[in-house]
Amino acid sequence: MAETSRLGEGVRAYWLIAGMWIRSSMTYRTSFVVTMFGNLLMTGLDFVGILLMFSQVDSLGGWGLPEIAFLYGLSVTSFGIADLVLGSMDVLGARIRDGSFDILLVRPAPVLAQIGADRFAVRRLGRITQGTVVLVWALVSVDVDWSAAKVLLVPVMVVSGAAIFCAVFVAGAAFQIFAQDASEVQNAFTYGGTTLLQYPPTVFGKDFVRGVTFMLPLAFVNWVPASYVLDRPYPLDLPQWAAFAPPLVAVACGALAGLAWRAGLGSYRSTGS
Fold first, then answer.
1. Are 83 and 127 in contact (CB under 8 A)?
2. Minimal CA–CA distance to 117: which of 193, 12, 37?
3. Lowest-confidence range among 1-15, 37-51, 115-129?
4. Helix (H) or strand (E) holding 66
5. pLDDT at 85 over 70
6. pTM for the whole thing?
7. Phi, psi (5° rounding) for residue 64?
């Protein structure tokens, strides 16, 4: 009961802080529109690079353009949601160094909610929009014998993938409490993770695929379930039921990230500044 109350308090605090930043960004609407359009354009350049690549080749690792677009759309949309919700977590190290993290600890609101909603940027909707457009195009273009299970698995992949990336953001923030200057390490697993998932597992070595499947299970964002949808061989010859494991993986990642966050907060010692 206490945990439920604490969760509700955190969600309420998050939306109050996020709402404040949204109102602030809407004060200058022209600037907001230009910034969001610029964000959409910049994120879209990633897929332009893929299109240029396919102007020279017919397949990449045995995967065609619509299949790569399917991976890309799932990865970017899932990451975009996580980035919108918790994308500000990478500034935690800077807050610790300048002493402003201590201010959050004495406020009557959960620290995670305060950090997650800090500088909430609606412009990040540009990444979600761009990823969704590519995903819709891929769903129309890809050659798939659709079934009810495959149709339902697509939104499950997006939501579960977003939850997995959120867990990585939280775990990375917890690591920053220990290291105090590790935002680039966190970005390597968040921004770097979504980039590698845009390409099929067949272009990577098996040892790397094992690490991304069993150590940091980003493969469950799209590689594993997408293999089921596209009737492709599973990475590492995983069992067929693994395609439906993303929600369980997301819950496990969330639980581990929560433990890491609590451990980080418990070990925190003020800078004294």
1. yes
2. 12
3. 1-15
4. helix 65-86
5. yes
6. 0.92
7. -85, 175
